[in-house]
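Researcher: Let's run the pair from yesterday's discussion. Sequence first, then tokens, for each.
Model: Starting with the first of the pair.
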Amino acid sequence: MIASEQLVTFMWILLAVYAGVILFFVIRGARKNTNINDYAVGNIGFPSWVVGLSLAASMTSAATFIINPGFIALYGISGVISFGIVLPIAAFISLIVFTKGFVKQGNAVKATTMAQWIGKRYKSKNYAFFFGIIALLLITFIVLINVGLTQVISKSLNADPFYVLLGITTFVFGYMMFGGANSMVYTNTIQAIIMCIVALILIGSGSEYFTGGIQGFFEKLNNIDPNLTKPTNTSSFLFRDYFEIIVTQIVIGVAIVCQPHIITKSLLLKDSSKINTYLFSGISFMIVFFLVVIVGLYARISFPDFIVNGETLRMDEIIPTYVVTKFSVGVGLIIVVGLISAGLSTLESLIQSLSITITSDIINPLFKDKFTESTIGINKVVIIILGLVSFLLSWEQIKNPEVSVAIFAQNGVYAYFAAAFVPVLFGTFLSHVSTRAVFIASITAIVVHFGVYYGRITSYMQEPVNNPGVSAAIGIITSLVVGYIIYKIDLKKVARGHSRLDS
């Protein structure tokens, strides 16, 4: 039992209030849903800065606040450089570049999902269906968030993780059957503000470790393990050299925005001229959120051997345990609510985008649009099935994690956006792109990513647990080269065809 009785009591009260606030906004937003399009992209003209906060809350999740700091606790400064500096900078630049082009194309093709955007952009129903199928890989991300939330809440309530996971799944998937984009922007905005307050508290929580300045802080880490203060950590499987820390994270950071719950957020803007305000609002908050990874260093100094009450902590338990043991009851309650907000904000976005994709881009095409009039009802059934599947997978990850649920999630999510990167890039910035070029590029990305990872190809894939970022980066670069070569070949064919007609 880690949490005090007082914390447990107040935590139950706070969870009840938090749930009530969320349900209020869900009901308010759900009243305005008249069809699947309203559920997907909303019909309320939200201010651009509010949509920006929704973006920040969706793009930074339980991984940013709970899971990634655990990696930093294990592996030190090398992880901070990778997850806290390189990845965010690459992602922010990519977000700015992609969003501006995507909004123009999105408004032009009137898409509500990523698969629809790709299908309409390339005039291919088969390609849209393909992206609907591979979107199922995003279930792995739902699992990551479920596990992160379960660890935080179960530690705060001294409760059995099984029943906590069951409660989270029932509550969140239950209200997402009705809410959709309208309610999600409301809840995401509140969550982003809470997350920002909590991020600042967490970042400042290690101030006592800086009494000897930065050098004194580094000495504390160095005394625990000299690898913790090195820019590369050869004892890890994620941060062994600059290729893993910098090159891989730049590629992943650039491609990471090609996820449906991130890039399609811009389609909520009813006035695309406000895009700069949207981006400024979102990125400003995300800078603070991404810095939370340094809390992993504080946690390592707090329990250098990862033993608490005689038990060795698993990686995904490190930050929840740090929060419960470090702070007073009042501050602890605020932080736990912030960590829950970090998880729920992305979980809501994933459930919303994935359920619509399954309904609109898999089920409707398979049944030749027979259910178009009852699409909202079908979507609710899809969410129930998603909830059941994610519960079973999440419980398996809690019982038998492979170092961390993050590895399981990265494998699936990275495969998805590796496949999406070339079609989104080419579709946004190039003209006269053949479906053949991007379709082959997408398949190449998936085959190379999984081939390198599970085939243990390259020296990076020789550990018991390997880095999915390396295999995904290789897959993305390979697919980009393959896609561009085919694009150029097809352009020449078109040019030759025109010259024959002219002659």
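Model: Moving on to the second of the pair.
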Amino acid sequence: MIDLLIVLFYFTVIMVVALKGRAVGNSVTSEEYFLSNRNLRWPSVAFSTIATNIQGYQFLGMMGSAYLYGLAQASLEINAVQGILMAVFIFVPMYLSEKIITISQFIKKRLGSTVALFYSGANIIMFATITLGAALFWGRSIGL
């Protein structure tokens, strides 16, 4: 019961801080929020990309899986390098030239708002099921 109260308290504090910060009247555009007004230097963008790529399940489960199964667990991150390099050399210049801020905006521009809405919904569903399920499984494997 005490755990539930702590979690509810945490979410309440976060919600109050978020609403208080928003109520001040600081209207922030999507470009300011996502891209920091395009004023960041490349080291900040690189660190942000790596930080975005790291998720909670990597801290929870991948360490336990690496302990149990060895170096094979690293193949996920080793193979992610190709995707990051494709993003850097192919997609990022295209997004910058077209003033694209989010992937959903790019899909909406290229394929229409219906496909963009489907993409966003599919990402939410996949995160809530596949990614979260994998994180819970990997977290369980630590205890085995």
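Researcher: Give me one sentence on the second I can quote.
Model: The helical segments are 2-23, 30-35, 42-53, 56-69, 75-98, 103-111, 113-143.
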